[in-house]
Amino acid sequence: VCLTGCSQDLMVQTDQLCHRRGIKFFTGDVFGYHGYCFADLGQHDFVEEKPKVAKPSPSVEDGPDAKKAKLDSSETTMVKKRVEFCRLGDALAVDWRGPKAAAALKRTAPDYFLLQ
């Protein structure tokens, strides 16, 4: 489901409905030079390809080579991962008071507050 140009209440209600039924949800809008996009993909499973780490040879006991793990670009491992996306209502209900919020505020794009 994709929404644009809707009220915040309608977006939150639609996201809750989609999240309960396992339907992917996208919303966004543009205001002049600024805009936002939000995606609630529920539980998203994917596979990531990682290069294998070659262990140092046992003959080298000390020195810089013994402490460094080397990446072998010819061999890779497939790693399954799962990401749990948050709901729009949860993203908008952040409490900006307190010590943790001050640190998060520095990492938050100013465009986040357009939606507020």
TrEMBL record:
Basic and acidic residues: compositionally biased ranges: 64-73
SUPFAM superfamilies, alphabetized: Activating enzymes of the ubiquitin-like proteins
One Gene Ontology MF term: ubiquitin-like modifier activating enzyme activity
Disordered: annotated span: 52-73
InterPro entries according to UniProt: Ubiquitin-activating_enz (IPR035985)
Top-rank lineage group of the source organism: Eukaryota
Gene3D superfamilies linked: NAD(P)-binding Rossmann-like Domain (3.40.50.720)
Name by which UniProt lists this protein: SAE1 enzyme
